[in-house]
Amino acid sequence: QVRLLESGGGLVQAGGSLRLSCQASGIKSSINFMAWYRQAPGNQRDLVALISSSDSTNYADSVKGRFTISRDNAKNSVYLQMNSLKPEDTGVYYCKVVTRYSNAWGQGTQVTVSS
């Protein structure tokens, strides 16, 4: 069973930076893609950034130029560097890892950006 452990959330002032980490364990096959989603109170869970097995990336328009997703294949880990944070970036951030045989979500980590 794939398990994801997230870390790095917290409280930061607008304009600040945070780096989220997600490490996967129990991986039995190659990873198709890894991604970060965000869910603000009362909203649906939306894609923030995705990185494929070929290292191609995709970002939500609202975070382009501010967030960077990266991965470490040796550690089965994915990261999200968040710069120039805005209050609207506040929410619970979830890591997602998709392999040939599994589709796993992390428990979520809270990010709060104060104005």
Report on the structure:
The chain is built from no helices and eleven strands. By secondary structure, it is mainly β. The protein has strands at 3-7, 10-13, 18-25, 31-39, 45-52, 57-59, 67-72, 77-82, 91-99, 103-105, 109-114. Strands 2, 4, 5, 6, 9, 10 and 11 form a seven-stranded mixed beta sheet that branches. The chain is globular. A hairpin with a 5-residue loop joins strand 4 (31-39) and strand 5. It starts with a strand and ends with a strand.
Unreliable spans are: none
* Helix run count: 0
Largest sheet: 7 strands, mixed
**General form:** globular
Proportion of residues in helical segments: under 10%
Helix-strand pattern, N to C?
EEEEEEEEEEE
Strand count: 11
Structural class: mainly beta
| Through-space gap between termini | 40 Å
Percentage of β-strand residues: over 45%
Radius of gyration based on Cα positions = 13 Å
Query: Overall pLDDT, averaged?
Result: 96
